[in-house]
Fold:
Amino acid sequence: MLNMEVNGTDLHIELTPGSSSAALEALLKEGPLTIPMKDYAHMEKFGNLGTNLPRNDQRITTKAGDVILSEGNLLVIYYAPNTWNFTRLGKVINMTEKELRKVLGKGNITATLSWR
Structure:
C-alpha cells in the first residue's frame, strides 16, 4: 500500500493494478520520495515525480481521493472532479472528501510518499 504523508496526516492509497502503479511501487521501494505539490484550480494538488512512469491514459472523470499520473511524470491527487486523459494510479481509502479537503488545505503542500 502507498502512503502519502501530508501535514502530519497519512493518506492510505490503494493502487490500481497496472504497469504505471507497479513502476511507482518499484520507485518507492528504493526509499521515500518527497514532492512539493502545487494547488491547481482548487481541485487538485500536483507535483513532479522526477522521473517518467509508463502511461496508460484513458478518459477519466476524477473523484475526490483519486491519485493520477499526468503527462507521465506528474503525480496528482484530486479533491474535486475533472475529466481528461489520465492514468489512474490509485485511490485514497482512509478519508472522506471532507477530510481530504481539510488535510490538503488551501495552497501548496509537501507530500512524502512511501511504500508500506
User: Anything to note?
Assistant: Residues 19-29 form the longest helix (11 residues). The mean pLDDT is 96. The radius of gyration is 13 Å. The chain has two helices and nine strands.
